[in-house]
Write a structure and sequence with these properties.
This protein has about 290 residues and is of the alpha+beta class. The chain is built from eight helices and 13 strands. The chain has two domains: about 40 residues, no CATH class; about 230 residues, Jelly Rolls (Sandwich), CATH 2.60.120. The strands form three sheets. The protein has a six-stranded antiparallel beta sheet. A five-stranded antiparallel beta sheet has the order 3-4-11-6-9. Helix 4 runs antiparallel to helix 5. The N terminus is likely disordered.
């Protein structure tokens, strides 16, 4: 704690490095004489506590509202075409970087929404939280969502690519083995359609780490849970204006399931991943 000389006003470093509320408190204390100091100290400590408490509402830091509004504004900008897809990815990574996961869980009522998940199989269970009513979500021109995905150990978000969609996946509990892929080309073949994928990531993700995807970067992904209760917090925006057209149609969730473990490659580091049904993909990767 910086020494305060009693009997003169605080100036310089101690004043400029304190938040306004704290700075004012110490200025008052510093101008008191020694006889008054100890009595005033208790009052200043109480004022300091009040100043700090103003940043917390309902046990959740107020900066989570800033985060929530930033999330809505980012989705609004993307839906309106004001930013490119990869900028959404970069800004989403920045928005979630360093966020306190305990605060986020309380803010989104994570424990209540996921308490009943029992994971009877290895597919993900989901729950949709809601942002507080104080967050302005008006004017977002495309469908978007926020969602918890939960899995038991060995459970999976089975491998797939997307058409005209973005998403972000923040690990908030447990651990995942994550693989992502750039989608280089769709190929139609009488024997069976396939997608050419270029691997971009093969890594373990711990709480606080995340991946993102879009038409332009890391379009394919595959997650496998490595802890008994593993969860991601996802953000998605769908039915975006088409920045590229695809040969292969997606399902109603903008998904195309693929098998990225196929042996066939093109000789240039690309995986020739067959398009498969949801049932076949789940049977292989979440059985």
């Amino acid at each position: 704690m910086t020494n305060v000389t009693v009997g003169r006003q605080v100036t310089g470093a101690i004043a400029t490095h304190l938040p306004p509320c704290e700075s004012a408190t110490y200025k008052v204390v510093a101008m008191l004489n020694r006889r008054q100091f100890f009595g005033a100290f208790a009052a200043s400590a109480a004022l300091y506590s009040v100043c700090r408490a103003e940043a917390v509402v309902g046990g959740v830091p107020r900066n989570l509202d800033t985060w929530g509004q930033g999330l809505a504004d980012l989705n609004r900008d993307l839906a309106a075409g004001r930013i490119p897809l990869t900028e959404w990815q970069n800004r989403m990574m920045a928005l979630d970087s360093g966020i306190d996961l305990g605060d986020l869980r309380r803010y989104l009522d994570f424990d209540r929404l996921t308490a009943a998940m029992t994971f009877p199989d290895k597919l993900a269970q989901t729950a949709d939280p809601k942002l507080p009513r104080t967050i302005n979500i008006n004017g977002i021109e495309r469908h978007w969502f926020i969602r918890f995905f939960g899995m038991r150990r060995g459970g999976a978000v089975i491998p797939h690519v997307h058409n005209n969609m973005v998403s972000a996946h923040l690990v908030i509990e447990g651990q995942f083995h994550a693989r992502t892929f750039d989608r280089e080309a769709d190929m139609q073949d009488p024997v069976g359609d396939f997608v050419l994928l270029r691997p971009t990531l093969d890594a373990q993700l711990a709480p606080g780490q995340m991946i993102t995807m879009s038409d332009d970067r890391d379009n394919g992904h595959w997650l496998v849970a490595e802890a008994d209760r593993s969860f991601t917090f996802d953000v998605g925006v769908v039915a975006l204006s088409k920045t590229r057209s695809y040969t292969l149609p997606a399902n109603k969730y903008s998904m195309i399931f693929v098998d990225p473990t196929a042996d066939a490659q093109d000789g240039y580091g690309l995986i020739r991943a067959p398009v498969v049904s949801f049932e076949d993909c789940a049977a292989k990767f979440a059985a």
